[in-house]
From TrEMBL, chain A:
Keywords from the named record: Oxidoreductase
InterPro entries: Hydrogenase_assoc-protein, NADH_UbQ_OxRdtase-like_20kDa, NiFe_Hase_small_N_sf
Domain NADH:ubiquinone oxidoreductase-like 20kDa subunit: 15-164
Gene Ontology MF annotations: iron-sulfur cluster binding; oxidoreductase activity
A Pfam match: Oxidored_q6
Name listed for the protein in its UniProt record: F420-nonreducing hydrogenase
Length: 291, 112
């Protein structure tokens, strides 16, 4: 490899966790780092302008404000390959649950409550204007690759970066659902009652959903190795949908509907079904009543 | 015998094939209402197709409520394939109901 690969990275409406997950490459970093030149990355160096001629740009986080949008468009112009990196960039992630509230309500919640010194003063000067909702990166620009995960597994980061370094097509994501890689025993039944995660202690061998826990494995892309069900925690869907469906929440809902009244009794169904993918849903935000 | 001209029919082999995605897709594309029409209870050739659809419609109602579109905009009707009058009746009931509710608020919010 003659020239180093010029890499750009940024965190938009995300938590920097995807950047942190790069460190989990551990000794693999030693293979990767000598072949990379990080030319832009606010998390590691203070570079004011995004330089031209970037080979690979990793975007973490969704698009929440006008500045995010502007940067994303600039990144696209200046980069050969753009990766929607992590679930927030791919599907909105946790911050996109804010799409269930109006921008006004969100700002009021933060700035107009008694917990601040100057309630009712919503900062407007010198801060970028919020968009009407969180958008996945792919809704704003063309994205070349998507690597979901909250955060992506180090193996996925490694195979992505290795493939891009070698100029190969990254082929890292399984197309199956999580249940297919989950070792728990399934009987093919639907539970009569649904429980909160803290209620009772789940059997270690049996499918969590069939035991009545709200596991979203049936609507979530495989790839994480069923990390959460392996430690008795239901999957919350962080790897997003598979390519076979349009809408992760609807895929969960189709399965959960078979529990009859049990699912109807749950509160905040949309928040549960779309926990990580609200921004990429067919109906990606709560519709506000006129007036 | 006529059903309202604004109704578009999407045929599925059995209501058991009805997927909540279809309903959300319809509303995303601007439909004002969705009616799911299945065979009479206990007359499903696959035994439970229509009941499964009914469960999905019930859940779709709640999802639509939470999304601000309104659960009243989707209904399930049961009838046999030979009951044309019943279909027209159901279409008219649905049409009236949606007329009262007005246009899909998603469409309105996007100014389309
Ligand atoms: S629903 Fe959850 S626990 Fe059950 S098989 Fe799927 S991933 Fe495993
Ligand atoms: S089990 Fe589900 S929530 Fe947990 S890491 Fe895997 S995809 Fe994410």
């Amino acid at each position: 490899m003659a020239d180093k690969v010029k890499l750009g990275m940024i965190q938009l409406c995300g938590c920097s966790g995807c950047h942190m997950s790069l460190l989990d490459l551990h000794e693999k970093l030693l293979d990767v780092l000598p072949n990379l030149e990080i030319v832009y990355g606010p998390i590691v160096a203070d570079v004011k302008e995004i330089p031209e001629g970037i080979d690979v740009f990793l975007i973490e986080g969704g698009i929440r404000n006008e500045h995010d949008k502007h940067l994303t468009e600039e990144i696209r112009e200046k980069s050969k390959i753009v990766v929607a990196w992590g679930t927030c960039a791919a599907y909105g992630g946790i911050p996109a649950l804010g799409n269930l509230y109006s921008t006004k309500n969100l700002l009021n919640e933060i700035y107009a409550t008694g917990s601040v010194d100057n309630p009712d003063e919503i900062p407007e000067e010198n801060v970028p204007k919020l968009l009407d909702r969180v958008y996945p990166v792919s809704h704003i620009i063309k994205v070349d690759y998507t690597v979901p995960g909250c955060p992506p597994k180090p193996e996925h980061n490694a195979s992505l970066i290795m493939a891009l370094l070698e100029g190969k097509e990254p082929n890292i994501l399984p197309t199956k659902i999580l249940c297919d890689e989950c070792p728990r025993k399934k009987k093919g039944i639907h539970p009569k009652e649904l429980k909160r995660t803290f209620e009772g202690i789940p059997d270690k061998e049996l499918c969590l959903y069939e035991q009545g826990y709200t596991c979203l494995g049936m609507a979530t892309r495989a790839g994480c190795g069923a990390m959460c069900p392996s430690v008795n925690v239901p999957c919350r869907g962080c790897y997003g949908k598979t390519d076979a469906v349009l809408d992760q929440g609807a895929a969960v809902a189709n399965a959960f509907a078979s529990t009859g009244d049990a699912v109807l009794k749950l509160s905040d169904k949309v928040g549960l079904f779309y926990r990580f993918s609200m921004a990429d849903a067919l109906i990606p935000k709560k519709v506000e009543k006129k007036k | 015998m006529q059903y309202p001209a604004s109704i578009r029919i999407v045929r599925i082999p059995c209501t058991g094939k009805f997927d909540i995605t279809y309903a959300l897709r319809a509303f995303q594309k601007g439909a004002d209402g969705v009616m799911v029409v299945g065979c009479k209870p206990h007359e499903c050739a696959f035994e439970t197709g229509n009941f499964r659809a009914e469960e999905r419609v019930k859940l779709t109602k709640e999802i639509l409520d939470e999304l601000g579109i309104g659960g009243d905009r989707i209904e399930m009707f049961f009838m046999s394939a030979a009951e044309a009058t019943k279909f027209v009746e159901a279409s008219n009931i649905m049409f009236e109901k949606i007329n009262k509710l007005g246009p899909n608020p998603l469409k309105a919010s996007q100014g389309k």
